[in-house]
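Hey,

Quick one before I head out. I ran the complex with biotin overnight. Inputs first:
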Amino acid sequence: MQFDVRRFPVVTSTMDVARDLAEQGAPEGLVVVADEQTAGRGRVGRAWYSPPGQSLYLSLLLRPALHPRRISWLTMIGALTILDCISQFSILSSQLSIKWFNDVSLNGRKLAGVLVEASFVADRLDYGILGIGLNVNTRFADAPEEVRRRATSLREAFGREFDRDVVLDRLLAAFGARYGRLPASPLADYVGHLETLGRPVRLCAGDEIIEGTAVRVEEDGALVVMTAAGERVAAFGEVVSE
Ligand code: BTN
């Protein structure tokens, strides 16, 4: 895949810039990278801590021939891409894992997040934007308490600074390889790195909280939870505690 990398010093969110360019007809492979985001966002309306000059914030514009019910595959590919990239930096694969649905953890702390936003025309996917936030050299001293408690960065884990351009190059190469495997499903690889299965979970799905043991991920990305009553419930949402 050919990448057209566009760099910006400050944006609200790379998702916004990528969407504007997508609406203007930009082709697949466009990559919006920002040094800072003033309104970086995550799933379920969360903010993404995006201080200047420390981390990678990027959005990739994709136009895959993917059934709308398979849109979650882009999130899976995004998470796997981060693992592929980070595991090149002499790290044990056991230190890295994916927390359903879109979190990449390093030593049990959140290193990166993936956000997919999509646009559909009739029942066809027009484009998907894959956003990746990767804590490279992030310093969390000024971060909100919730972020300080849960997050980590490559700098923190390795005790040294990383060149963000090198990480970006590797990330894009890893993405190209993963994306090139479509239309094959990424689900088996994704599940292979998932820390969530077999664990007790509280899955917050809209207004509903489903408690039980996470047993499976459906092809469309839904988490299947076995409740204490022995019922299997498949839902999307947020695993709020384990
Ligand atoms: C999450 O963990 O909920 C997903 C976080 C995704 C953050 C990235 S940073 C680049 C892109 N721009 C955004 O505003 N969000 C994504």
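Residues 13-15, 37, 40-43, 46, 48, 57-59, 102-103, 113-115, 131-133 surround biotin (CB under 6 Å).

Talk tomorrow,
K.
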